[in-house]
Predict the structure of Integrase.
Amino acid sequence: MTKLAQTKEGYIFDWNGFKQASQLQKLLKQLGLTKTTFHGLRDTHASFLFSKDISLDYISRRLGHNSILTTQQYYLELMPEKKHQQDADALSLLNDLSL
């Protein structure tokens, strides 16, 4: 893993007049990674947590959403396979109840 330069506070990016986006692009180029945005990283982070079955309530609070519904609507749209799996799990539970 590449050692990243840090600020004296231990951060990767300086709070430098809203230049974090350009700093991110420079870092990605140094690492040979595809261009992305901070919002893209946020989406990836949330989707990764969601795919690992981290609670939606926790993810919602971590993202700073005022409502769990915001998180649910947005990330279930990003991950339809997860929604389908949850639908199948719910149907299976209901089916087990009828036995």
User: Anything to note?
Assistant: DSSP finds five helices and no strands in the chain. The helical segments are 20-31, 38-51, 56-63, 68-78, 80-97.
